[in-house]
Design a protein that fits this description.
The protein is an alpha+beta fold and 86 residues long. Helices cover 49% and strands 21% of the residues. A 3-stranded antiparallel beta sheet has the order 1-2-3, covered by helices on one side.
Length: 86
């Protein structure tokens, strides 16, 4: 199933207001969850990302997926145009 644009990156907070997860979601509702922890000790113990790194990674993934979709659409359009020229 293809990814549905637009992609969004959101922070999920716990009861204390700390960012504990960054979520990348597409228009159809599918999501990627990147777990993180603001505490250095808990982050090291659970081997997860810092909130800043998780958000940066989430934005990077969303940007790359969006670019990949645009490239694939162009390839498909070029393929269709080439078939019409034959």
């Amino acid at each position: 199933m293809p990814i549905a644009l637009p992609l969004t990156v959101k922070r999920f907070r716990n009861g204390q207001g700390e960012v504990v997860c960054v979520i990348i979601r597409d228009a159809s509702g599918r999501a990627i969850h990147i777990n993180c922890d603001p505490s250095d000790f808990r982050r090291t113990a659970s081997r997860v990302w810092s909130p800043e790194d998780a958000e940066a990674l989430g934005k990077w993934i969303a940007r790359r997926l969006s670019e990949e979709i645009v490239i694939q659409v162009r390839v498909d359009e070029n393929r269709r145009d080439a078939m019409w020229c034959r």
